[in-house]
Amino acid sequence: MSETLVIGHRNPDTDAICSAIGYAEFKRLTGMKNVVAARCGDCNDRTDFVLKSFGVDPPRFVADVSPQVHDVMVHDVVSVPLRTSLFDALTVMDQKNIRVLPVLDSERRCHGLLSIFKASKFFLPNPNRIFDSRRVLSSIRTLAQTLGGSMLCAFNPDSEEDLVLMVGAMKPSSFNLRLSSFTSEKLVVVVGDREDIQRTAIQGRVRVLIITGGHPASMEILSLAQNHEVTIILSPHDSATTATLCRAAVTVDHLLREDFLTFKSADRLEEAQRLAAPSQFQAFPVIDDDNRVVGMLSKSDFLKQVDRRLILVDHNELNQAVHGADQIEILEVIDHHRIGTFTTQQPILFRNEPVGSTSTIVADCFFRHGIELSPSIAGLLLAGLVSDTLNLTSPTSTQRDVEILGRLEKIAKIEATRFTQQLFSSGSVLTSRPATQAITTDCKEYCERIYRFSVAQIEEVGFEQFDNKKAAVIEALRDYRNENGYEFSALLITDVVLQNSLLLIAGQPRFLRTIPYPEREAGVFNLQGVVSRKKQLLPFLTDCLARMTL
What we know:
The chain is α/β, with parallel strands linked by helices and 550 residues long. It contains 20 helices and 23 strands.
């Protein structure tokens, strides 16, 4: 089933979460089927406050949208138990039109694979081993079941035995001579209604006498067999068919390939294909963490189209998108940031507007199309808007934001200023999370010329919490930069009340020297009046990079 995920950037902020939920609802109401709001990072405390305030569940968590094994594998696994006869297994393979059959135990763990190729080699052995074409490896009961026959005067029918097939299609003297050249208790003799051959075989104490063609055994033959402890099987088939079926009574555990290749359902399809391509196998069991089979993957499955699509909200650069976004179709982009490098195979809807939040654009979609907004969705979009614009005090705010916010207030029946105060008082990231998590809660990666760098932002009510954890935050930022190999990592800590920020930079001295703002201490700068990462900080940092290279 096709599915479209509406998803924000990694380390999503409130606007990314709220706009994803809102736009997914808009697409559903305008006719798109199977559209789901998603996220590729944890919600922060303020976003949790917003979701709880309006009674909305968080979007589905999706860490990676790369095509995976479970997207194309066969979930309804056709299998057989270990002691299944080859005849029954081949019947299943024929009915289901499959070439490789997994053999599972009662715990659904795979003991090996049965292939058509392996079965054909059994029926047509190498010319150097032609005698194997007469080998019957089976219990008497399984042999009778494979023939669809009935046992008479059976002796020890349930033990598996290694027997030799002989067809009694000759005159009694020739048969008697041939009989003497074998160990009689290892022989399975196939014969029609010729009682002279039947009698000779029984008197020679063969292991099994199979009477073919649906012919009955006479009372004399039955009595003789009973006295000589010879099992009789009545077969409904002719002698030629019976002889062939006797070979198919072997159980599949004797014919398995036990050196098979397995995958996990969450394995990336690209990596699975790389491993499967050179393999001589045509199909591969898919197992869970307990080695239980949950699916089958064949080489032809790699040709299937993975029907998962994306709508990106609040970002348009793939290095900020969910992992694997470059491997599946992107239908739309709804954003308010700078336009990065982005290419598609076909035209898409790309709506990028210079407004204060993506939630503003999503709300406008509802208003333009005359789609009724529920109070809960209106409340979410209001929260995304005031969070990104600091309740219209950010320099990113526009008249459109003002107009949209007024309409959302009426529908949600919420006063924006009061809600903003509650929102920013609902939790401090620096208090609720370790420094290593706090610095990545709302963090984005950027590429400028040859440089990769990260810019994160934390919004606080005052700088007290930062002062309490300053050493840990600075160390975490430095480690994050080193781990990712960035030119620098920046963290903007914004006081939403005073509308000022502190800028922490982990980078080389040559870059730090390009920053003209007052340095509070090593690597920490006072940015008076700077509150917007998008409109103020990012252009400033890219300009610093340009000046560093002069």
